[in-house]
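Tokens as discussed.
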């Protein structure tokens, strides 16, 4: 998988891909329209952040490339790639318990805080993407 050169793009399956962890300096793209929503992405080697309709959706430290990102009524799923392990924060429903799967293996259940944020760490090797599924 490669970084997303255009910073964010719509995929034919309805998902989106975003982020470029190879950029030395921060770049952003605003007003990206997809499925009736407006997205904004900021990305570079140190951080990748996604907002939808001015609401927080995704942030990783350091920066990552995300493909096949899909939000459902039960959570989110995506593939993530980066040069180093990443701390990922997701914007979900507040005070809700979610099951976390990384490459098909359960890493446990976590509950979001009152702001709806869920934090998880993902080991990234740089050679292949890691699939993350977060479900209620």
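Sequence:
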């Amino acid at each position: 998988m490669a970084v997303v050169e255009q910073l964010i793009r719509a995929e034919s399956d309805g998902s989106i891909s975003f982020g470029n962890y190879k950029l030395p300096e921060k770049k952003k793209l605003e007003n990206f329209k997809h499925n009736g929503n407006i997205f904004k992405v900021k990305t570079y080697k140190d951080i990748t952040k996604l907002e939808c309709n001015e609401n927080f959706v995704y942030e990783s430290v350091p920066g990552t490339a995300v493909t096949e990102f899909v939000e459902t009524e039960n959570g989110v799923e995506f593939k993530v790639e980066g040069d180093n392990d990443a701390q990922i924060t997701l914007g979900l429903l507040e005070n809700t318990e979610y099951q976390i799967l990384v490459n098909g293996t359960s890493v446990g259940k976590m509950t979001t805080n009152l702001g709806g944020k869920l934090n998880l760490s993902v080991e990234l090797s740089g050679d292949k993407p890691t699939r993350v599924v977060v479900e209620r």
